[in-house]
Design goal:
Largest sheet: 4 strands, antiparallel
Structural class: alpha+beta
Distance between the termini: 36 Å
Order of helices and strands: HHHHHHEHHEEHEH
Helix content: 40-55%
Length: 166
């Protein structure tokens, strides 16, 4: 089995794909289909080429998230926070850093910002930096994570390209 994997995939491809998704089969299949469309002659999937289709995947993943949120009563607040995060241009932040940024722009302060960040964390749009090192996403650990006022938030890698975040 390992021989087949190494013949068909670059080392760490699975981890690469999992970092940019919610780990759902449809996420992985979509990324691989984009790869196949772009590089139909390839016999081995390599990370260097996965990076070349990352922008397309990121757009798809972002739209997938919006589609899932379309029935949520919090969709407008989440969309507003995503716009603020994108405009700010950083992949990590604290709630206070976001508030400070909002106060220097024409953005309106999001009502119940703490609650919205908590929802975004529980849906894995955002992860939490734990002890300054490890990033935890709810989909990876199988249970909701709890954000605090002093939590350090990290934007899911899967949507960073679409939001033009480093």
């Amino acid at each position: 089995m390992e021989e087949i994997y190494t013949e068909m995939f670059d080392r760490n491809v699975f981890e690469f794909l999992m970092d940019r998704s919610f780990g759902r089969p449809r996420d992985l299949i979509q990324y691989l289909n984009l790869y196949k469309d772009e590089f139909p002659e390839d016999e081995k999937i390599i990370i260097k080429k996965l990076l070349k289709v990352e922008q397309k995947y990121s757009k798809w993943f972002y739209n997938e998230i919006l589609n899932e949120l379309s029935i949520s009563q919090d969709k407008e607040a989440i969309a507003q926070v995503i716009d603020i995060i994108s405009a700010r241009g950083y992949v990590s932040f604290t709630e206070q850093q976001l508030v400070n940024y909002i106060n220097t722009t024409s953005f309106q302060l999001v009502p119940n910002l703490s609650e919205t960040l908590g929802i975004m964390t529980s849906t894995s749009i955002l992860g939490l930096k734990i002890n300054g090192k490890n990033t935890v996403f709810a989909y990876r650990i199988g249970y909701p994570t709890k954000a605090q006022h002093n939590s350090k938030f990290i934007v899911n890698i899967g949507i960073r390209k679409f939001l033009s975040l480093g």
